Amino acid sequence: MTVKPEDDWVEVVASIPSMLEDNATAAVMEANIGADGFEIRDQGSFKKSQPGRVELVFVTRGRDVAALTQRIDQALAPVGLHTEITTVPAPESAWRDKWKEFFKVFYVTPRIVIVPSWEKHEPTTAEVVLNLDPGRAFGTGQHESTRLCLRALDAIETRGHAARRVLDVGCGSGILTVAALKLWPESRAVMLDVDVDSVRVAMENLQLNGLESRVRGETRALGKLAGKYDVVLANIQLDVLEGLLPELVARVERGGVLIMAGLLAGQEKLLEAQLGAMKAGREFAVWGRGAEGEWTALVLYRGK
Ligand SMILES: C[S@@+](CC[C@H](N)C(=O)[O-])C[C@H]1O[C@@H](n2cnc3c(N)ncnc32)[C@H](O)[C@@H]1O
Predict the structure, then answer these.
(1) Which CATH class is domain 137-302?
(2) Global pTM?
(3) In Å, how far are 174, 222, 292 from 284, measured between CA atoms?
């Protein structure tokens, strides 16, 4: 199939046997594929894969599709012999908006409610409403790790934790920052992400909630940031958190809270052990642990 390379969105689809999903996903995550979006399609997705197979879908626009296909092929070569890679046009509106049908108003806690920007909702005065259009950034609230962070924020605010400065590392759609700024109306926040598009989307979401004057969004590395924060959030995967842990710890104010998520069950123990081996880490105590499905979050309190 001929695909016009410049302006049209295309999907480069690698179909693999289901049993190779974990290895194949790990292989493409490690390789620098350079697509604009990535999705794993299986039998549970709204666009289903073939039975017994899983599709790794790389969505892209304006890139060299042949080179992209080659990088996917190279990344998957060691994993399995039965990879089929096809390229199909994906008009932006078709793939971009389809998921919106499945994204409705929903409550993460009795008071925190997520409202997609295209849905209507009449909140009660007690509700903390997160208005959101995540676009292609991570963070709709539909992932367990995001929900664990939102529940942790709700819990620590309910227990009387005071926050004036919030840091959200790996902000994605900005969902956690929106929640924090609404839970603590006197607070200000810094959002960081390595992905420039995520920072842009996050700023748009902060604007959607009328919070843009209380936040700074940056692609700056955490190590280049100064200052201390009463709440530090990091919902990123284990290997990244392990690398960032000393810098995360350094940014937590005495009496402050560090919330880490994006961890599979059991991985929080590895971070706790790493923290215990750090001098500053001994000032932290576990305030709480959250779990949903195979995901966990760790909530740490830094003594005063
Ligand atoms: C799982 S998403 C979390 C998004 C959102 N905070 C949430 O809770 O739904 C992780 C985000 O971390 C970003 N990220 C990955 N490595 C990072 C790093 N070293 N520093 C900052 N952000 C990073 C990714 O681009 C992605 O937007």
Answers:
(1) alpha beta
(2) 0.74
(3) 26, 20, 24
